[in-house]
């Protein structure tokens, strides 16, 4: 089938990731998706991570900028650690699946072959039962709902600083953010 594609018609690009960012939120600006947690396609989770921002904002009490800023802090506190864990699992799976030749590939293939008899960790994280449970047994919407009121109240009182940020003041802005 690929032989039927004219030369120059297939666009290829490298898959890229970056190190975890210290924060995703500054004032009323939030990074979402691949801008803050680019995910390799080895867990089928890149697009699946998109729904939580909606869950958080469904709880936002108003469209007041202070409430929005605090809601963004809730979004970050609910999502950041989990998203970074999924990014790491996808990278591990990618490394295991794309070994090329050599001893590491031979050892990986032996692990796949012995799974039926011996059980154990699956080199392909997407197919690992424990990873599947971690991914699909997690209700991100419920976690957002459960944590929203507590984090929002702490942000209201200036107690919740966000991740990698200074304390939030009464306007919902952190000490580094310029008021727009």
What does this structure look like?
The protein is mostly helical and 180 residues long. It has one domain (25-156). It has five helices and two strands. A hairpin with a 2-residue loop joins strand 1 (25-26) and strand 2 (29-30). Helix 1 packs antiparallel against helix 2 (65-97) and helix 2 (65-97) packs across helix 5 (140-156). It is globular. The model is unreliable at 166-180 (pLDDT under 50). One of its GO terms (molecular function) is monooxygenase activity. Keywords: Monooxygenase, Oxidoreductase. InterPro entries: FAD-dep_Monooxygenase_BioMet, FAD/NAD-bd_sf.
Secondary-structure blueprint:
Blueprint: E1 25-26, E2 29-30, H1 52-58, H2 65-97, H3 103-118, H4 129-136, H5 140-156
Antiparallel strand pairs: 1-2
Protein name: FAD-binding domain-containing protein
GO molecular function, one term: monooxygenase activity
Family: Belongs to the paxM FAD-dependent monooxygenase family.
